[in-house]
Amino acid sequence: MDYHFNFNFVWRYADKLYWGLLLSLEIAFVSILIGMVIGLGLALAYTGGGRLVRTAIAAYVEFIRNVPLLLLVYLVFYGIPSAGGFAYDAQTSFVATLALYSGAYLVEVFRAGLDAIPKGLIDAGKSIGLTPWQRFLYVRMPMMFRIVLPSLSNVYVSLFKDTSLAYVIAVPELTYGANWIKTNTFRVIEVWLVVWPMYLVTCFVLLQALRQLEKRFSLVRR
Amino acid sequence: MIAYVANTLPFLWEGLLVTLAVSGLVVAISLVTGILCGIGLVYGPLWVRLPIRIYSDILRGTPLLVLIFLIIYGLPIISIDFGNYGSAVIALAAFKTAHVAEIARGAIQSIHYGQTDAGKAIGLTFPQRLHYVILPQAVRRFLPPWINAVADAVKGSALVSLAGIVDLTLAVQQVIGRTYDPLPMYLLGAFMYFAINYSLSLTSRRLEARFAYIRE
Questions:
Q1: What's the whole-model pTM score?
Q2: What is the rounded CA–CA span in Å between residue A102 and residue A94?
Q3: How far is CA A214 from its chain centroid?
Q4: A55: distance to nearest CA of chain B, Å?
Q5: A140 near A111, Cβ under 8 Å?
Q6: By Cβ atoms counted within 10 A, which residue in A166, A196, B1, B151 is the most buried?
């Protein structure tokens, strides 16, 4: 091995990586929030809706789940504005893509969660005279969120990893920062050797923190 | 419009073949390595289990794109050069191995311990127990999630376009680079991926329904 590692350039531009990491976390967070609204809305529409509604929701879910995320990113950023004659900035476009993407996965998660609520609890709600709206707010929603919490944290961590794709449309997140340093200093492998552990450690810390949260809110207290 | 699409089809077809070749290679390699790692995770002694566990956790905590760049730029540093195509396939296969290992582990562990005990009781050796008792049952629980993992591999292969390999995604990009008409081409590309992956996920669902009877 006759390669001489030189990390100095990476440290010099470390702020790009630091702010990039924060932006990655932020994009994943905003996306999952919007995705949860989409997912919950569609899950409720699916359980309550007619055949047409169900088919439409299933089509959306299957389309998103079976097309590579990279192609969806291109489709939303380049494809749709070209046909509609309007434009939006890269970050908005990426958050919208990731929200639509996570929404498709969360529909299934929320549907399973709604199905998993014990029927006895809803009957209990009826028997103490709660209106359907009250049952929804005080019985079904709190139960469902506790059931789906582990899946939510998995989706969040996986979305955080997917934010690396934002670099293809020049959103200045962690992978973009890495590419910037790479093209400006040519310290190629050093950059990736720094960025890789940054992703790894963040993923593990996130997952551990979310597991603590799950324990705190899980249905069966351990 | 139709003439325009028909004109590009042969070019997209070549991209599609590259996508299929990359995913096929990745699936074939990761099937072997993943199952070996999965068996190691369940039955191996600590010095086998621990490295596989660390490998699997590290790989699954890395964005696939970062892994591809790391391997494409990293391997030549230690004087191993497989070129773009080889490195990208290695990166995807390394990533998929971790997933297949977890699927195999789950499938093997889902078989009741009594089956192993029964195998021991009639004097089967470890390879015999695997071959005649555990694996035939585990394969039914392995197949449905594995086919989903295959669909994931096809989707993941789109990332090789960022390493300059002309797969379906990059072919679509190149057509758009000439025609400046993105929407129809992206939709066509998306539809081609959809056709492959949706048939895979339908197969997975059908198998799952067929094997549902083994649930205790």
A1: 0.91
A2: 12
A3: 17
A4: 15
A5: no
A6: A166
